[in-house]
């Protein structure tokens, strides 16, 4: 079943067209990766889906409903949650307070307890460090906190913007393992990454974004084996 669909979506910054009429969909249960170089439009696409930016034309549908004009906070209530690029945690708040910010909109106390349980079982480190200030944690831990906070609203689709950015290699593997686990627990994942190797290896389907347009699509495996993708994005000829 199609969960999220973008149809001919264009996004402008003033007169600059950053996204050129892109169309793609994400099925329930999938991991879909968007890969592309710096400035290709990955973050713009994510922010348009979460409602922080609005398309100048085209439409976005979620679970059969047109959400093109819906405000960002309402999209969270409908099940779209984003862990932003650069993490965006609250450095002066504790781990627990940061997670609590993500419970916004959860209707029941039981739902909140369930969300905490899920996040602490995925990230035992956060459980151990509940009282620590977010800003004093390592890069990898802050990334875990950002993903954990996004999961607190029990989203149907989790939007992850460059979760591996700036992480040491051992953390990168760990973060991708956790993303796979989150997906196996039933959450649909849309992932934006410059680390194309991991993003394609983990994805059911993927798209390559170049200067605001989708130039290639296929299964993660197909794109990993595609010579043009290899040359441009995987660092091998
Ligand atoms: P990165 O990996 O650097 O985040 P990206 O693929 O996410 O790159 P975007 O940040 O979406 O790319 O940027 C897409 C295009 O839009 C770029 O040409 C960028 O310069 C431009 N752009 C992004 N933000 C703004 C802004 N606030 N005002 C004007 N142009 C912008």
TrEMBL record:
The keyword Cell membrane does not apply. The lineage of its organism: Bacteria, Bacillati, Actinomycetota, Actinomycetes, Micrococcales. Residues 4-236 form the ABC transporter domain. Belongs to the ABC transporter superfamily. This is ABC transporter ATP-binding protein. It comes from Microbacterium candidum. SUPFAM superfamilies: P-loop containing nucleoside triphosphate hydrolases (SSF52540). CDD domains: ABC_TM1139_LivF_branched (cd03224). Pfam families: ABC_tran (PF00005).
């Amino acid at each position: 079943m199609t969960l999220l669909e973008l149809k001919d979506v264009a996004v402008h910054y003033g007169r600059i067209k950053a996204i050129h009429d892109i169309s793609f969909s994400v099925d329930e249960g999938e991991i879909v990766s968007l890969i592309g170089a710096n400035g290709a439009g990955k973050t713009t696409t994510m922010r348009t889906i979460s409602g922080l930016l609005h398309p100048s034309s085209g439409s976005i549908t979620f679970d059969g409903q047109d959400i093109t004009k819906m405000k960002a906070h309402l999209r969270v209530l409908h099940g779209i949650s984003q862990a932003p690029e650069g993490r965006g945690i609250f450095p002066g708040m504790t781990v627990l307070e940061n997670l609590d910010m993500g419970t916004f909109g959860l209707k029941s106390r039981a739902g909140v307890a369930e969300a905490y349980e899920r996040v602490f079982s995925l990230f035992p480190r956060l459980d151990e460090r509940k009282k620590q200030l977010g800003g004093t944690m390592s890069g990898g831990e802050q990334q875990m906190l950002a993903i954990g906070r996004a999961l607190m609203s029990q989203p149907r689709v989790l939007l992850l913007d460059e979760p591996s950015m700036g992480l040491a290699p051992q953390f990168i593997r760990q973060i991708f393992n956790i993303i796979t686990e989150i997906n196996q627990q039933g959450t649909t994942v849309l992932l934006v990454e410059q680390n194309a190797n991991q993003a394609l290896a983990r994805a059911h389907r993927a798209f390559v974004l170049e200067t605001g347009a989708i130039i290639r699509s296929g299964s993660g495996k197909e794109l990993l084996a595609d010579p043009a993708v290899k040359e441009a994005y995987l660092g091998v000829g």
